[in-house]
Write a structure and sequence with these properties.
about 40% helix; 14 helices; single chain
């Protein structure tokens, strides 16, 4: 299952620096807008201590972690929804992502130009929101014009779509993001999912602070305002220092990294926490397959049943699903081998209705 997160924000808020830390790719970082013209894409591994533990136990020939694609999207500006500043291209790049990492500048630095002349993350957030909302409004109005005639002719499905679009439009005209709209039925959401609305995507607000604002994730006066704003739309906020992460990324020795993190008052890097948070906002979980040849982490959606989880490995696994043999992670760690788990009576044999849990070690039986 592909997971793609787009990093967005105004120019010079730290997007490309953060992207470089995440992917070790070298997106050009310069002190002027539109430095990143084409979206830079980096594929990074999802930090998971459980995979390391299972690898130590099974000693496989191959290890395959879960991965995330990070897309560094050039800085948006006012008028992007109307094509200003290569806006259409950038908004199209956002549309293809599963989630948005919205970087907000929460630090002072006279050497780094702010496109609007001053530090104000709430204003910056509202600028981006407005551009995304205007683009969504355009999409909704286009869809409305297509279904209104069908609805008047008695098409029941068109009536449901028209009703949904009218609710979308009213919400957007209030300056609100679609992710905060709860007035639609599941059927209406499904019927309009092909519109892929920008403000419906889950968002993680990433507050880029200076190093002194890092300990305990306390942040600063700007972060406090962002948290208040995010609470209203039930979104997550995390505090990170892109500058500090850039220094961490250059340290190859694990002990040196640990010392540097301790000096900053941190237990793990912001990059690791950011990827875990991206997983969380998308409601993704991980299950494992464990063997002598390979230990692998598989990404699925929370609530997925065993056959669909098997289908992530191969469609034949889902089509011919018979049963799933399930070992809980803690049991695998305790008993060390599959045979020992069986002897202890800790292996579950599950059918088509089993909902896969985060950390399950799975073996699928199928027949095609």
């Amino acid at each position: 299952m592909s997971l793609q997160c787009g990093i967005v924000g105004l120019p010079n808020v730290g997007k490309s620096t953060l992207f470089n830390c995440l992917s070790n790719a070298k997106a050009q970082a310069a002190n002027f807008p539109f430095c990143t013209i084409e979206p830079n894409i980096g594929v990074i591994t999802v930090p998971d201590e459980r995979l390391e533990v299972l690898t130590t136990i099974a000693k496989p020939q191959n290890i395959v972690p879960a991965t995330v694609e990070i897309v560094d999207i050039a800085g948006l500006v006012k008028g992007a929804s109307k094509g200003e500043g290569l806006g259409n291209q950038f908004l199209g790049n956002i549309r293809s992502t599963n989630a948005i990492l919205h970087v907000l500048r929460c630090f002072e630095n006279d050497n780094i130009i702010h496109v609007d002349g001053s530090v104000d993350p709430i204003r910056d957030k509202e600028i981006i929101d407005t551009e995304l909302q205007l683009k969504d409004l355009d999409s909704v109005e286009n869809r409305l014009s297509k279904v209104q005639k069908q609805a008047k002719a008695g098409d029941k499905e068109a009536v449901k779509v028209m009703d949904a679009c009218e609710k979308y439009k009213a919400h957007l005209l209030k300056g609100l993001n679609i992710r905060t709209l709860d007035a639609l039925t599941e059927e209406q959401k499904e019927l309009t999912s092909d519109m892929n609305l920008l403000t419906e995507k889950p968002v993680l607000y990433v507050c880029n602070v200076d190093e002194k604002s890092l300990p305990d994730g306390a942040g600063n006066k700007w972060v406090e305002k962002i948290r208040e704003m995010a609470d209203l739309e039930q979104s997550e906020v995390m505090v990170i220092s892109a500058a500090a992460e850039a220094e961490i990324a250059e340290l190859e020795d694990a002990e040196e990294r640990a010392i540097f993190l301790a000096d900053l008052g941190l237990k793990e890097s912001g990059v690791a926490k950011l990827i875990k948070a991206a997983y969380r906002i998308l409601k993704y979980i991980t299950y494992f397959t464990v063997g002598e040849k390979e230990v692998r982490a598989w990404t699925i959606t929370e609530g997925m049943r065993a056959p669909q989880a098997a289908g992530v490995i191969h469609t034949d696994f889902e089509k011919g699903f018979i049963r799933a043999e399930v070992i809980k992670f803690d049991d695998y760690v305790k008993y060390k081998t599959e045979s020992a788990v069986k002897e202890a009576g800790k292996m579950g044999v599950e059918g088509k209705e089993y909902i896969v849990k985060d950390g399950d070690c799975m073996h699928f039986r199928f027949n095609v």
